[in-house]
Structure formats: C-alpha cells, structure tokens
Amino acid sequence: LAKTTQPISMDSYEGQEVNITCSHNNIATNDYITWYQQFPSQGPRFIIQGYKTKVTNEVASLFIPADRKSSTLSLPRVSLSDTAVYYCLVGEANAGKSTFGDGTTLTVKP
Amino acid sequence: EADIYQTPRYLVIGTGKKITLECSQTMGHDKMYWYQQDPGMELHLIHYSYGVNSTEKGDLSSESTVSRIRTEHFPLTLESARPSHTSQYLCASSEYGTGGIKYGYTFGSGTRLTVV
Q1: Considering only CB atoms, which chain B residues are within 8 Å of A96?
Q2: Measured on CA atoms in the order B84, A96, A93, B23, is the torsion positive or negative?
Q3: Do A97 and B112 touch (CB under 8 A)?
Q4: B39 in contact with A at a CB cutoff of 8 Å?
Q5: What is the pLDDT of residues B80-99, one digit of tens each?
Q6: Residue A69 has pLDDT above 90, yes or no
C-alpha cells in the first residue's frame, strides 16, 4: 500500500475554498485515490475517488496531476459543518485492508 | 441510510466482564474490518475478514477476538474487559464496485466502550 502524507491541520473561514493536498510518491499503476471525511464519534464517510485528472461530485473536486504522485481535495465554499478530519487513501481497486494515517483536521471558523 | 449497523452505540462495563460488540451489514460485502480509535487519534486496524470463516489480525495488537460465521455478521469479543480497552470501535465493510466507484469503505457509527 502506498504511503500518504497530508498536513496535520488546516484552518479556514466560512465561504472560502479549501484545498487539501496529499502526497503519495509510491503510488502504483493500479491504485485509486480515495478521500474520506470523519466527524467526531462517527466512522469515516466516503467523499470522492479518482484515478487521474479531475473528478467532481456534488460535494468536492479531486485534482490528480499526470504523474499521480499527489492529489488535491477541493471543498468549495466551506461551512462550519465541514469541520472534520479528512483522510487520503491510496490502494488497488480490489484492495482489502488500508491504513488511514493521521488525516488532516480542517477547522472552519465563522 | 447506513447499511452497516453496530450495537450497542455506547457501553459502560466493569472490569473483568465479557463483552461482544455486534456488527452487521446488509450489502453482501465479503470484506469486513474492525478499527479502534481513541479521541483525536488515528484509526488502527485490529481485525479483518475477507469472507466467511476467514479472520486475520490487523496492524495493532488487540486482546479481542472476532468470528465470521455469516457474511453479514462480524462480531468482536473481549473475554475480560480492562480499562485499557476503553476506546471507540468502528466496524467497516468494503467492496470492489462497478461504475464510478471502484473501491470504498462503508463504516458503522461505532461503539464507544468505557471499562470502569
């Protein structure tokens, strides 16, 4: 499993766009990049997944450069309810167990 | 909307008691997992299963045991609870999907265990 590196914490204000970058230099050809969100006392929740270029859904965008050694989760116009821990996971499509790492604690301020 | 259920949600129990944390999923996933997480800390994998009658220990050593007799059920048992077992226990399942999502975890809401 590819090791990932994320910032430990980030602060933002309501209405701003937030970009969280994850480094995964050892990503393998078959690996997908998946981001999860976790609120206190809850399990992580799937946000978005991608393989290359750009993926967008109703809550976020995921940017992946051509070399795939990093990825950026973009949250448009964050609100207080987006305060959570965000995890970047890299693994094969049919992978089993994964290591979530420390994640990035995003704090959105009013 | 959760398709993976954990009970109880909260449990306070005395030292030395035997406990079983229940986890069930209705999605037919073959792969299931137990993670342990202390407040503000990372998730640690303690057990996983890739199918019926298959169980493995995870990255973090745990005194708990698991069983997988049915696809949908993956209970975790502590034979003799101790204060050091106080933590949140999260159950998850995963699949190799089709369409847009190739692979992803679905987590339960967790069991907050306190051993006094």
Answers
A1: 31, 48, 50, 94
A2: negative
A3: no
A4: yes
A5: 999 999 999 999 998 765 55
A6: yes
